[in-house]
Amino acid sequence: MTEQNLTEKTNAAFPAASLLGYPRIGRRRELKKAIEAYWAGKIDAAALDAAAKDIQLTTARRLQELGLNEAAAVPGTFSYYDQVLDATAHLGAVPARFGQLLNAEGQLDVDGYFTLARGNKEQQPLEMTKWFDTNYHYLVPEIGPETDFKLASNRIVEEFEFALANGIETRPYIVGPVTYLLLSKASDDAPAGFAPLSRLEDILPVYVELLGKLAAAGASWIQLDEPALVVDQDTPAAEIQAATARAYEVLSGAAARPQLFVSTPYGSLDGQLGTLAATNIDALHVDVFKGAVPSAAALAGLGNKTLVAGVVDGHNIWRNDLAVSAGKLDELKAAAGKLAVSTSTSTQHVPHDTAEETQLSAQLRSWLAFADQKAVEVKVLADYLADPASAQAAIDEASAVIASRATAEGVQRADVRARTAALTEADFNRSEYPVREAAQEAALHLPPLPTTTIGSFPQTSEIRSARARNNKGELSNEQYEQLMKDEIKRVVELQEELGYDVLVHGEPERNDMVQYFAENLEGFDVTVHGWVQSYGSRCTRPSILWGDVTRSAPITVAWAEYAQSLTSKPMKGMLTGPVTILAWSFVRDDQPLGETANQVGLALRDEIADLEAAGIKVIQVDEPALRELLPLRKADHAAYLKWSVDSFRLATAGAADATQIHTHLCYSEFGVIIDAIDGLDADVTSIEAARSRMEVVHDLEAHHFGRGVGPGVYDIHSPRVPGEAEVTELLSTAVKHVPSRQLWVNPDCGLKTRGYAETEESLRNLVKATKTVRAGLLEAAK
Length: 782
Known about the structure:
Layout lengths: L2 H6 L21 H10 L5 H21 L8 E3 L6 H9 L18 H9 L9 E3 L6 E3 L2 E2 L11 H11 L4 E6 L1 H6 L2 E2 L13 H18 L3 E5 L11 H16 L6 E5 L8 H6 L5 E5 L18 E7 L9 H14 L2 E6 L18 H5 L4 H16 L5 H15 L7 H8 L11 H12 L16 H11 L5 H22 L16 H4 L3 E4 L6 E4 L2 E3 L2 E8 L6 H8 L7 E5 L1 H6 L1 E3 L5 H21 L4 E5 L14 H16 L7 E6 L8 H6 L4 E4 L8 H8 L4 E4 L12 H14 L18 H26 L1
Parallel strand pairs: 1-5, 4-6, 5-7, 7-8, 8-9, 9-10, 10-11, 15-17, 16-18, 18-19, 19-20, 20-21
Antiparallel strand pairs: 2-3, 12-15, 13-14
Helix pairs in contact: 2-3, 6-8, 8-9, 11-13, 17-18, 22-23, 26-27
């Protein structure tokens, strides 16, 4: 960095206590409601902007109330939809297939932004996939040699200026350049072998221009998120190191800029720590909750930079062991010249405040820390750094609560542990697939390319209202049950009329595919206001898995049995798999995940037995989150895949040969875990494929996948209706790469979030396309 650069950047100290990020949907999902009202045409862009600003200001003031009062202590991590999409908007990286989305001023306005997220009549939206090892999903940028980068959004600057005008200096945020390119995919027009990281030099000037605008606006710090550096990538490590060094050489050398804070959440930096330490950034975050505490030697290159220690878990909800965290800070303080405290990740992955959950027992609430409590924990630990004695009372209280949790009733149950301890290898294995295939063909009599859906049908406002009134006691259980039966009858009749082969009951009685089971299994509790963002405006309430898990009574059987009574066609029993129940819950952290997964697997095994006894011949055990919990380091993959696959097999291995076991996965780079998917040994696997335009069939072909498979042909995460020709093209592609006798036809995922009009039209097109491709197969066979 030149002497001139040093004089033109700000020199404010990094805040002693701050979060990497905060929930951005609003305490009562105000952002979700405003965005969906805008999409529906009920409010205009000005009203949407006003709602967004209100959430941002409310967040900033709340964090100040919790003790994060220093300049730049409040992270500016608001987003209308997704932080990676925000970076795409600022870089102007609009794929050519969308045509001209930039307006006359060369900016991507809010409608263009949402078009990338949701698609339009002609174009599918950007592909969606998981964000590291979380239940959050981001939109994948499409980058090619032709991508024209330019600063096409000023929103980060405007958000900073708005907060500053209201008396609060926030810390602007953007995904860092190396992570942005590593998370991107090559555009459709890119030549074979093209790597988005090769465009690094072209995006850095846009980042530099943004830094200059933020400096001019008065920002003292900017946060650049580089979580891709904690993951084992396909790109060689040396190439990533070189890109990281170059990126921060350029950014730190900007003529005018805020101070650069680089955050690296979700795990240990390992070899990349030295690379970042050697650059001229001003502060570096390391995750020392999930990752190891770096050695003094590893930190030697930091010099006068501030080390920001992520000692409070931003990803789960359990109270921090402040004594352990204080010990980590003592180690770091001895090795780092300047030290600050933060969370390991953004707290966007947890709800707002435990105080909202008055229905939970006081004991359980005392074990928990949501985003607001984590802010307080960070402040306590920052106070500890300044004066250890001032934090001792809080440290002692946390230690006492954690000790009491270990001995609380229900945390460990002798009957549950005896059952898992008695498991043998036979409990994890079914008959060989050819034996099962023959038995299922004899039992089901399905046509070529059988059609089905993934499980849920649209959850209408009437369904949600009935559930709410039942919960409030305004609707009796008998009245509620009849309304749900009426909806099931409607769904079954619709599928019959459309001509589907294997039916579902639509799941109107289920508020959420995990919460429904959590409410019916022991060892769980559920929240009322514990919303977290999954993607865009989609929010979920993860359940709290705090104790040993067992099933005391059947959960789904009565509904499945009723639905089957309405049709002579096979009706699928619908269960959520053990890994997904874990991944989409806040899971206990006091024992190995594999032990917890086996407990859930045994509960599901009992449910499958009861479904079979009720005459259900097809049972789907969804595992859409199988990829989500995959460790970020390859050395840890084998151990994870062993217990995760085993828990599914434990749940399903008791099924009879003639019972067809389905599973479903979505938005998860399948090629990475195709061996594990195969290892599940499901008879039929349905997988997302529409938004990625059937990319997965190449992996299936290369792997010689030998059982039933349904690559999705209808992207349900967008409101667009796929035409018959589009579905026919996707199915024709699948038939070229996967033997037709194995292929099923289905949407990408459940239909819960869609409306009935678009659903009926889409499903009708799916059946028409199937008939066309079936006819082609018959003609080719002559």
